[in-house]
């Protein structure tokens, strides 16, 4: 099982009990799901979603012993309302979103998420539909690329990078993560020489977020989940960068003003130093929690 980020904190906030109906909107490697499952049995039900076929396939094998309580759904969490009504569930006792990509996805070069491993430029969570990163870098205009890289990567050197991509594709189709990482490093590398992050990090994040329409999925997904929560029950959202965290914070604030929720975490909860040491992926995690009134 995947090492779940902020596991103890999430379990404390959700406080799942036997018989509860919980939703894991981002199944991934099943780390949070398996912990929740232990707490809601007997009598509980876990609905675990992921857009990634591979995550669902892996979980089918992992959860086979306890499958009575688990429903695995390959869906975009933006459709959480539809998924719940399809499953005959009206109200839920808690929900977790652990955003972004899983380490399985990052480590698999065939998925094209990593600038550290060469592979086809794909980056889709759902490999059966939608445009790929390859489509984006080879067919979008310079302005479109610059805008995506600025907006979703918060990359100051977006124009330089977009120009370099457009120049490079005149010499031939850009097919791999290695090619893209090299183009971006060539364009912006010198600005990153004293920084800890790789020059291609923000550009890869931006293209991934665009390809998977991640920001709008979070908006719709979190709103849908809040609508389904039973009074007194909680939503936990773990995000990994400031853009996502801001969206979550704003939704919670808006819903608070409307009198729908109480904000449980005034400031986001961060992983302990010990957790970051044991699981570097948790480094930039921020957990926000709200409770349905
Ligand atoms: C960080 S991982 C989750 C890890 C999981 N909590 C664990 O402990 O193993 C995020 C997962 O969410 C999935 N995901 C991202 N956006 C999604 C969306 N809009 N709908 C459904 N799944 C999504 C990704 O495919 C990935 O598997």
Count of discrete structural domains: 2
Please give the CATH class of the largest domain: Alpha Beta
Coarse structural class: alpha/beta
Biggest sheet layout: 7 strands, mixed
Characterize the overall form: globular
CATH superfamily of the largest domain: Vaccinia Virus protein VP39
| Order of adjacent strands in the largest pleated sheet | 3-2-1-4-5-7-6
CATH architecture of the largest domain: 3-Layer(aba) Sandwich
Which characteristics define this entry?
Rossmann fold, 45% helix, alpha/beta, seven-stranded mixed beta sheet, binds S-adenosylmethionine, 293 residues, 13 helices, 2 domains, single chain, DNA polymerase, domain 1
Description:
This protein has a 7-stranded mixed sheet with strand order 3-2-1-4-5-7-6, with helices on both faces. It has 293 residues and is an alpha/beta fold. It folds into 2 domains: 7-104 and 214-292, Vaccinia Virus protein VP39 (Rossmann fold); 127-211, Putative methyltransferase TM0872, insert domain (DNA polymerase, domain 1, Orthogonal Bundle). The chain is built from 13 helices and 7 strands. The longest helix is centred in the C-terminal third of the chain and has 16 residues, at 242-257. The protein is 45% helix and 15% strand. It starts with 6 loop residues before the first helix and ends with a strand. Helix 7 packs across helix 10 (201-211). The protein has helices at residues 7-14, 31-40, 53-62, 80-86, 103-107, 133-139, 142-153, 158-170, 177-188, 201-211, 214-228, 242-257, 273-278; strands at residues 21-24, 45-50, 70-74, 92-98, 229-239, 261-263, 286-292. S-adenosylmethionine binds next to helix 2 and strand 2.
